[in-house]
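User: I'm designing a mutation panel for Carboxynorspermidine decarboxylase and want to avoid disrupting the core. Could you give me a predicted structure to guide residue selection? Please restate the sequence first so the numbering is unambiguous.

Assistant: Good idea. Sequence first, for numbering, then the predicted structure tokens:
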Amino acid sequence: MTQSTDIQTPVFVLDAARLRANLETAKRVREEAGCKILLATKAFSLPAAFPMMTDYLDGTTASGEQEAIMGHESFGKEVHVYSPAYTKAEVERLTEVAEHIYFNSLEQLDRFADIARNA
């Protein structure tokens, strides 16, 4: 282990070899199951690692507008978004960055279906 007094703390350290091994597992599962695998940006929002991940994953899933924007801008593949509540303006903005918007109720679907459908 290398020790350095030049490293500013706190610091986030990513083990790229372990991440790549996990991504290889995800890729194998994706291929064998014939499914898509999305990165949950709520659990792992490290855009610096996204370029390493795009060859293995199909896109991102977000729990709100800011995560959806990050997935769109930094990951560059499919973006799925879910939130327990949306405003009309938020749904309008989400149609610009997300391929899939999940609604929490039939009432939400009725309220925002035309906006989503016409995007």
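For picking mutation sites, this is relevant: The longest helix spans residues 16-33. The first strand starts at residue 38 and ends at 40.
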